[in-house]
Amino acid sequence: MRSRLLPKLSAIAAALLFAGMIAPTSMTPTGPSGNTTKWTTQAQSSSEQRETLRYWTPQNMAAVRPMPITVQETTASPRSAPSNYLASPPREMAAGPSMVAARPVASKWTAPGALPNTVGRIYFSSGRSDMSCSGSVVNSPNGGVISTAGHCCKEPGGAFHTHWEFLPGHNSASEAPLGRWPARQLFTTTGWGLRGDHRGDACFVAVGTRNGQHIADAVGANLVSFNAPAGIPVHAFGYPGKLGDGQTLYYCSGATWTAERTNVGIDCTMKNGSSGGPYLADFDGNHGTVVSVVSHGPNGPEEIGPRFDASIKAVYDAAGAA
Asked: Which has the closest alpha carbon to 26: 13, 9, 45?
């Protein structure tokens, strides 16, 4: 099994668990034989991938609308008390005082380093609307997986989005400084894909090679971890539409908190267009570990993401084996 672990990352790499290879899935919802379906998936053929590249003309890209983060209305405060659902924190990612200065008001990311290479903007068509989200490259056995939100891949109970492509390093000066990477296959949880359950609002997308190179080799990748506890310091990244017209990478930072009993939140003002952007823990200024993605939030300076649990790990494993 190939692995693309990056240098200069902390001991959290030892905590990553990669499952055995799963047989590639078909274009219809499927899952491990004999078990309840854990993911739903859609493939894009080679001709559809070529059509995606043709579709995104400069005019079409300029006309996209940032995907709204979904609003979850709750009767209780989103900062719920922790529940037994949460896994015990691993030693290398224990909750505690944050070493990251809290920046709940979104700011442009201007620091030098490799971070912008692994985070990018996503373009897709949802019905008759062209939309954008955020995403990041994550380490995987096949070297070609992007993490994002489920609603950046599929309508609950409806169709998968089309013309899906990822542009790492997207910025106001160049839409695709590191190339355009159309989807080969999109995977999301059945919780999100069939029912719109925010606990499963995550998607992992397998992209093809470009000039014979896997995306993780071309631009780098972040690690990914599951069942991380609330209370750890993270940086959240995305391309918010109301800030920089969705063309510029923004971030917030601070400690996560338990939201809606089973999800994780961060104080942040990015909002629409930041959907699917990573929560990076153990961030060294260049790379980090994705522990969640921007999913939804109330109408305030807060954003909430799904806890990366066993069901989301099954989706990640399937994408990594595609």
From this structure: 45
User: How far are the Cα atoms of 118, 172, 230 from residue 285, in angstroms, in the given order?
Assistant: 12, 21, 21
Strand bridging mode 223-224 / 289-293: parallel
Report the pLDDT value the prediction gives residue 301, as an integer from 0 to 100. 77
Sheet arrangement for strand 278-281: 103-108, 250-255, 233-238, 278-281, 289-293, 223-224
What is the rounded average pLDDT of the residues 263-292?
A: 90
Torsion of CA 296, 298, 299, 301, to 10 degrees: -80
Query: Positive or negative, the Cα torsion across 74, 79, 80, 84?
Result: positive
Delimiting residues of CATH 2.40.10.10 domain(s) in the chain: 38-67+120-220+311-320, 91-114+223-307
Q: Are strands 233-238 and 278-281 parallel, antiparallel or unpaired?
A: antiparallel
pLDDT digit string (tens) for 196-236? 898 999 999 999 999 999 999 999 999 999 999 889 999 99
Whole-structure pTM value: 0.81
pLDDT of residue 287 exceeding 70: yes
38-67+120-220+311-320 CATH choice from 2.60.40.10, 2.40.10.10, 3.40.50.720, 3.90.45.10: 2.40.10.10
Return mean pLDDT, the chain.
80
Q: pLDDT per residue over 86-100, tens digit each?
A: 222 332 444 444 456
Q: What is the spatial distance between Cα 241 and Cα 261, in angstroms, rounded to a whole number? A: 29
**How far is residue 152's CA from residue 67's CA, in Å, rounded to a whole number?**
8
On the question of pLDDT at 43 being above 70, the answer is yes
The class (CATH top level) of 91-114+223-307 is mainly beta
Nearest-10 Cα torsion for 229, 234, 237, 241? 80
What are the E-state strand segments in 52-148? 65-66, 103-108, 119-126, 129-138, 145-148
Structure-token match 């969640």, residue found: 292
